[in-house]
Amino acid sequence: MSLIAPPLSLYVHMPWCVKKCPYCDFNSHGLRSEPPPYAQYIDHLLADLDADRADFAPALEGRPVVSVFFGGGTPSLFAPKLIARLLDGVRERLPLADDVEITLETNPGTVEHGSFDGYLAAGVNRISFGIQSFDDDKLRRLGRIHSAGEAEAAVKSAQDAGYANINLDLMYALPKQELDGALADVERAVALKPTHISHYQLTLEPNTAFAANPPPLPDDDHAWAMQEACEARLAAAGYGQYEISAYAQPGRRCVHNLNYWQFGDYLGIGAGAHGKLSDAAGGQVRRRWKTRGPRAYLDAAGGPARIGGDHTVDAGELPFEYMLNALRLVDGVPMAAFAERTGLPPRRIAAALAAAVRRGWLHDDPQRLHTTVLGQRFLNDVIGTFLD
Length: 388
Hints:
Layout: E1 8-14, E2 16-17, E3 29-30, H1 38-55, H2 57-60, E4 65-72, H3 80-93, E5 96-106, H4 116-122, E6 126-132, H5 136-141, H6 148-161, E7 166-172, H7 179-191, E8 196-201, H8 209-212, H9 220-236, E9 240-243, E10 246-248, H10 255-261, E11 265-269, E12 274-279, E13 284-290, H11 294-300, E14 307-312, H12 318-326, E15 333-334, H13 336-342, H14 350-358, E16 368-369, H15 373-377, H16 379-384
Parallel strand pairs: 1-4, 1-11, 2-3, 4-5, 5-6, 6-7, 7-8
Antiparallel strand pairs: 8-10, 9-10, 12-13, 13-14, 15-16
Helix pairs in contact: 1-3, 3-4, 7-9
Organism: Rhodanobacter denitrificans
Function: Probably acts as a heme chaperone, transferring heme to an unknown acceptor. Binds one molecule of heme per monomer, possibly covalently. Binds 1 [4Fe-4S] cluster. The cluster is coordinated with 3 cysteines and an exchangeable S-adenosyl-L-methionine.
Main location: cytoplasm
């Protein structure tokens, strides 16, 4: 089987935030007395991109970028003029699709974002708000520095600036949360009429403050009840679930995240950013990640020291890596896409597929790979079936 180059995205990591949240295991760094070197960081991002383009030139040839995603940290700590400078530099270096989706993550606190009309003028056409909850007590427990009122005001401000494509991040199974509280958060979110809602369960991740000192969380059965009830409410409001934690109005699915879940390609620039690139000619999938510390990344100045690791994915690992993404999609993926994205013959996963079907985790469908309702609930077990 031959590997076919999938769509290409660009991920840009902005590592600073006002305050590190106790549940967060992302590569984010709270602000200190000295302000971060924002302008210098933009220069280094472009140098990083130049170096990656040189390293991966044959694999990038003729491929337009379908999405750009600014993640963090809090990317909106960067002023609109700096985001504009970076995007201008990206356009000079890579072809962008005519309908490219460009997302900027932001938090509702007024000290954490610039003017939304400035970001829109810079080329950002999608805003993602880290709301998490509309309950002020829950926000305090999560270590958030905004209030529910500030969250609603920020969303309306972005809409007034002209944004028609907005995502809200919500969490459920929060400390001491009941079912009514989880549903109330969804109601407040739906009332703001965003085009997309990401609704995910709070989990205790290693090396976080919550992991070291766990708060009282709902048990698994209560968390599952919250997920089912909120999913039904979102569906009634016109938000279709297309991934475990993602709900969208018709035509508003996130292009960038869909590319991840469909095992697409992406360049990753910035401190700790990860990338994945398919070399169709060589039949290999390669992963590269950048050094995590912002200071070390800046000191590398776009040179080889910016690279934290580089790895060609072994053929034995590809089925698991593919399923880790594709099985998150509620509608699944065409069966033929496995061979196209991995370069492996379908027989490599035949035994694992048969086992998952027998357990009732996957539909018995020779044309499409997708989980049953039971498989969605026990997704980690389903994915583990495909470990080499």
